[in-house]
Design goal:
Elements: E1 2-6, H1 14-29, E2 33-36, H2 42-53, E3 57-63, E4 76-80, H3 83-93, E5 96-99, H4 104-118, E6 126-129, H5 136-147, H6 155-158, E7 160-162, H7 165-175
Parallel strand pairs: 1-2, 1-5, 2-3, 3-4, 5-6, 6-7
Helix pairs in contact: 1-2, 1-7
């Protein structure tokens, strides 16, 4: 399975890097392919290293203005002209999506993926990996949107909140019929 991961390229502390690496190693050992932003920095590097060292393939999608940060030893690397094209390519190359901790770019990617799913533009499973409670506030907001009628389908049909790497990958494999 090609699993797209949206996440930060920032250098973060162990409470975020350890669970991210654990997910990446599970992904690689499971024979899956990591599809990611292609960066060789921060949490993106941690995840790419973990997946590759555990036997996973790496498919990166960088963007022209950040191409100098692209990982040289990825199995495949694509360079998009802008962020919109990058998001489209990431989604196209993925069978499933995991949203890890990140900043504005990650939040942008997450909301676009969920908006496209809401409108039936894809049916890929989406997991929000809530490492160290990072997305507790977002979960609360999504639940309010669901309860107050802002979502045309149940929140549980849009996104699965996982508290750890094992739960995230188990959900994806179950959704794909691999368990």
């Amino acid at each position: 399975m090609n699993i797209c991961v949206f996440l930060s390229a920032a250098d973060l502390d162990d409470r975020y890097t350890v669970p991210a690496r654990e997910f990446a190693e599970l992904l690689g050992r499971g024979g899956h392919t990591l599809v990611w932003g292609g960066s060789e920095s921060g949490l993106m590097k941690v995840v790419a290293d973990g997946a590759q060292e555990a036997g996973g393939r790496l498919v990166g999608v960088s963007v022209e203005f950040m191409a100098t940060l692209a990982r040289a030893d990825a199995d495949e690397m694509f360079v998009a002209k802008d962020l919109a094209e990058r998001k489209a390519l990431l989604l196209e190359k993925a069978d499933a999506i995991v949203i890890m901790v990140g900043g504005l770019g990650t939040l942008d990617e997450a909301t676009e993926i969920l908006e496209l799913k809401k409108h039936g533009k894809h049916t890929k499973p989406v997991v929000l990996l809530n490492t160290a409670g990072f997305y507790d506030g977002l979960r609360q907001q999504f639940q309010r949107m669901d309860e107050e009628g802002f979502l045309p389908l149940p929140l549980t049909d849009l996104v699965f909140f996982a508290e750890d790497a094992v739960g995230a990958l188990a959900y994806l494999e179950e959704s794909a019929g691999l368990q």
